[in-house]
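quick one, 166 residues, struct below
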Amino acid sequence: MTLPTLSKGQNIPLPNDIVRVDIVLGWTESEIEIDASALLLRADGKVGSDGDFVFYNQPESPDGSVRFLGASATEEGAQARIAIELAVVPENVHTVALAGSLGAGTFGELGKLTFRVVDGAGQSLAEYVTADAATESAFVFGEVYRRGGDWKVRAVGKAGIPDWPV
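---
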C-alpha cells in the first residue's frame, strides 16, 4: 500500500475500522525541542476546559482519549508522538488539532517538518511534509476531525491557530 502524501489543506478519510491513531510530529534539527500538543476542540473551534489541552506537562485528556507519548531523537532528527483513541473521544469533541510551540527560535530553523498518521499496528496512513515555516513560534501541523460520523485527517501547516472546520 502506498502511503498517501498530503498537500497543505488536503484531507483524507481514515479507514472505518481504525480505533486508534498515533500522530508523529517530526523535525530535522534535533537540538531544538518542540513542545508538541493536542487541543480537543468543540464544534465552535474552542477547547471546553484546560483539560482539553494535552502536552508534556498534562500528558492525558481527562477521558484518556488523547495521550502525549513523549519525544525522542530519530535518524532524521527528532519526533514527538501523540495517541488518539478515536472510539473514546467524547462526542462534543469535533477536532483534535496537533500543534507545536517553541520556547526560543522559529519553526523556520527546524528544517523539514512532518505530520504522520500511524494506525495502532504501526502502519502509516498518511504523511504531510513541509519546509514552508519561517518566523513562526507556534505551528499547527494537522488535525484529526469528525465529519458526518467519520474520522478524517487534514494537513494544516500554518502558524498559530487557523480557522478550524465546523
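Confidence is low (pLDDT under 50) at residues 162-166.
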